[in-house]
């Protein structure tokens, strides 16, 4: 008889917390620093499991198509465990407009409490950081295969004070 021990899921960062600082490379090998936006504009961090996967492809295409609308309210970036080179190939193939950040060491994903250990990837989650550097909104998809509601994220941004 074998026994499987389920790992305790990580606890997502709490609303009202100071967003942990990070610097990650985007698909163009350029640094993205969260602190560069402090005092200027909110940032939407959309954590997703993997480039090239079906749900992630659909979501990133939607974000890219709606980027002008989202950009009125915030800077939008995607974060996954994929490499800079994977992000570059994927962004080029799909004509994605948003920055895709590489967290291959899983440090940022873990800081935000969004590490999905059984698959060694990020959970599918959205974190909105206000312009003062505080976490204003967090939503983790209960089913990792379920796409997030882009209209819900946009509505939260529109109502952000």
Task: Describe the protein's architecture and organization.
- This protein has helices spanning 54-65, 67-71, 84-94, 107-111, 150-159; strands at 23-25, 31-33, 43-47, 75-80, 99-102, 115-116, 121-122, 125-129, 135-140.
- With 161 residues, the protein is α/β, with parallel strands linked by helices.
- The strands form three sheets. The protein has a five-stranded mixed β-sheet with strand order 5-4-3-8-9. Strands 1-2 form a two-stranded antiparallel ribbon. A two-stranded antiparallel ribbon has the order 6-7.
- It is globular, with a radius of gyration of 15 Å.
How would you classify the quaternary structure?
single chain
* Helical fraction: 25-40%
Query: pLDDT under 50 segments (min length 5)?
Result: 1-8
Radius of gyration: 15 Å
Question: Terminal Cα separation, in Å?
Answer: 56 Å
Question: What brief labels describe this structure?
Answer:
161 residues; alpha/beta; Glutaredoxin; five-stranded mixed β-sheet; two-stranded antiparallel ribbon; 5 helices; 27% helix; 22% strand; globular; disordered N terminus
Short description:
The model is unreliable at about 1-10 (pLDDT under 50). It is built from five helices and nine strands.
SSE topology sketch:
Blueprint: E1 23-25, E2 31-33, E3 43-47, H1 54-65, H2 67-71, E4 75-80, H3 84-94, E5 99-102, H4 107-111, E6 115-116, E7 121-122, E8 125-129, E9 135-140, H5 150-159
Parallel strand pairs: 3-4, 4-5
Antiparallel strand pairs: 1-2, 3-8, 6-7, 8-9
